[in-house]
Write a structure and sequence with these properties.
330 residues; alpha+beta; 9 helices; elongated
C-alpha cells in the first residue's frame, strides 16, 4: 500500500468520526428540554397569592416539591435567612435553598392550591403552583382557634388540683400549645397586621407554666438508716430536676427500700442492690412503683463495692430521667 493511499484512508476515517460526533451531539441537544422562563424566574408573592416551583418525575411529586419550597420560605420568613440560587447547565435547572433558622413554623398545611403551569423537564416535569393566601389565612386561623379551645378545655379546674395534678395537666397540653404557637408565628408571617397576638400570648403563658410546674413540686424521702446513701443520690437527682425538698408543707413522698446482697466472686467483692421506689401523692395515695437492680465490684472491700453500685444507680436514673427512671408521672 502506497503512502498516498494510507494518507487518503486516514483522512476519510477522521472525517467519518467527526461526522458521528457531530450527529450524536445534535441528537443530545435535541433530546434536552429547555426550561421555561417561569422556572428560572417564578412570579413574586403578593398580598393575595403565594407562588412555588417544583420538579419531579411526575405531576404529584413536582406539586409536593413546589409546596415544600413555599413552606421553606414561610419558615425562614419568621426568623432566619435564606439563600436561593438557580443555575442552568446543559438546559437542566438546579435549585438549592439553604436556611439558617432560630425558630420555625413547623410543617405547613396548604389549602387553596392550584396548578397554573406545567412543562417537561430533564427529570420529568416542572410545576408552577399558586396558593390562595386568603384561604390559607382563614384555614390557619380556624386551626389555631380549635387548638386554643382544646387547651382551655383541658385546663378547666386547674386551680382545684394538687401541684402534681397541675403539672401533669399542663405537661399534657404542651404538644397542642407548641402547635398553636407555630400557627401563630405563621399567621404573623402571612399577615403582620392580624390580631392573633392575644391568642399566642395566652399560649405562651400556658407553656411557661408547664415548664415551671416541676419547680412547684415538693418532696420528702422515707427510708431506713442503712439506705441513706441511695436516698442521698435520689435527693441530689431530684434537686437537679427542679424539685425542692419539703420544709414542712405537704408534698410528694418517695419511699425507698434497698435489699443488699454481698458476695465474693473470683477474689472480688461484689455488692448487688435491689432498690424499690414508691411514689405517694400529696393526698398520701400510691402513684407508681419502680424497681432497679445495680451491682458494684471492688478488689478492696464490700463497702467500696456497694458505693460503686450506688454511683451506678445515680448514672442510671440521670440517663433515664424522672419518668422512666423514677416513675414520676409528669
Amino acid at each position: 500500500m502506497t503512502l498516498a493511499l494510507i494518507r487518503a484512508l486516514l483522512f476519510w476515517l477522521a472525517a467519518a468520526l467527526s461526522s458521528s460526533v457531530l450527529v450524536a451531539g445534535c441528537a443530545l441537544d435535541f433530546l434536552q428540554v429547555k426550561a421555561p422562563p417561569w422556572v428560572l424566574d417564578p412570579p413574586t408573592d403578593t398580598a393575595l397569592e403565594l407562588w412555588g416551583v417544583g420538579e419531579g418525575p411526575n405531576l404529584e411529586v413536582a406539586r409536593t416539591a413546589a409546596l415544600r419550597a413555599v413552606a421553606a420560605r414561610l419558615r425562614v420568613s419568621v426568623s432566619g435567612t435564606v439563600e436561593r440560587s438557580v443555575s442552568v447547565a446543559n438546559q437542566s435547572v438546579y435549585t438549592s435553598e439553604q436556611s439558617q433558622m432560630r425558630e420555625t413554623v413547623g410543617e405547613t398545611e396548604f389549602v387553596g392550591v392550584s396548578i397554573e403551569r406545567t412543562a417537561r423537564s430533564a427529570n420529568g416535569v416542572h410545576v408552577l403552583v399558586r396558593i390562595d393566601k386568603r384561604a390559607l389565612l382563614q384555614d390557619t386561623r380556624d386551626r389555631l382557634r380549635v387548638l386554643q379551645q382544646r387547651v382551655q378545655a383541658s385546663l378547666t379546674g386547674l386551680d382545684t388540683q394538687t401541684p402534681l395534678e397541675q403539672a401533669r395537666s399542663l405537661r399534657s397540653v404542651l404538644p397542642e400549645v407548641e402547635a398553636g404557637l407555630r400557627l401563630g408565628k405563621l399567621l404573623r408571617t402571612l399577615d403582620p397586621s392580624g390580631g392573633e397576638q392575644a391568642a399566642t400570648a395566652q399560649l405562651e403563658n400556658v407553656r411557661a407554666l408547664a415548664l415551671l410546674a416541676p419547680g412547684r413540686l415538693r418532696f420528702s424521702l422515707e427510708h431506713n438508716a442503712k439506705d441513706a446513701k441511695v436516698a442521698s443520690e435520689l435527693a441530689e437527682f431530684l434537686a437537679s430536676q427542679g424539685l425542692k425538698a419539703s420544709s414542712g408543707e405537704r408534698g410528694l413522698v418517695l419511699r425507698i427500700k434497698v435489699d443488699i446482697r454481698e458476695e465474693i466472686l473470683f477474689d472480688n467483692w461484689a455488692c448487688q442492690l435491689q432498690i424499690g421506689l414508691e411514689w405517694l401523692d400529696e393526698r398520701g395515695q400510691l402513684i407508681t412503683r419502680r424497681q432497679h437492680q445495680v451491682s458494684g465490684l471492688s478488689l478492696s472491700n464490700v463497702q467500696q463495692a456497694c458505693q460503686e453500685a450506688v454511683s451506678r444507680f445515680g448514672r442510671v436514673i440521670r440517663t433515664a430521667g424522672l419518668q422512666a427512671g423514677l416513675g414520676l408521672p409528669l
